[in-house]
Fold this protein.
Amino acid sequence: DADVTQTPRNRITKTGKRIMLECSQTKGHDRMYWYRQDPGLGLQLIYYSFDVKDINKGEISDGYSVSRQAQAKFSLSLESAIPNQTALYFCATSEAGPTTYNEQFFGPGTRLTVL
Amino acid sequence: GQNIDQPTEMTATEGAIVQINCTYQTSGFNGLFWYQQHAGEAPTFLSYNVLDGLEEKGRFSSFLSRSKGYSYLLLKELQMKDSASYLCAVRVNQAGTALIFGKGTTLSVSS
């Protein structure tokens, strides 16, 4: 089984709709992240959470919100989707602490299309 | 602001060696990562540098010069499966923000 899972994998929605993307992990990591990726623009950080009670905005948080329901679950919501939120969305996790690289492990991605 | 630059595209042939450069200008520095991403798939971790010098891992090596704000990823004995995007990312500080990614370099390996 994959360590980091995302649902749905693909979603087509209409402008103005509310949509939630979910991320679950079995790696036992405290830190979780949401990124979006657009062609030619690389990965941009939307929100990140270093533990259940900690939520932080990233580079491009406008139009998004998140919920850290448990250590293993981190959801991203688009309250009122717009076409320029069409992108590939990745969830990632990492350990905390000074003894490892703390590299991020990515989920398989959710391809979102807003019409 | 934060800025990470990489070439957009590179091409090479099987068996060759290719070097992908990354320069960065960030408000802080606590390590540089290289990730590989095949089209439509998740990025996967390749290497990490926090001190100056070369880190070698099989066919892949990564170099860092903190004073120059410069890193490179060296891929040896290229294979077709190495065709992918290579992402350079900087961790600005240990306790603060997450990674800042460059836009990625798309490498095409031909036979």
User: Anything to note?
Assistant: The interface with chain B takes residues 31, 33, 35, 40-45, 48, 56, 58, 88, 90, 98, 101-109 of chain A (CB under 8 Å).
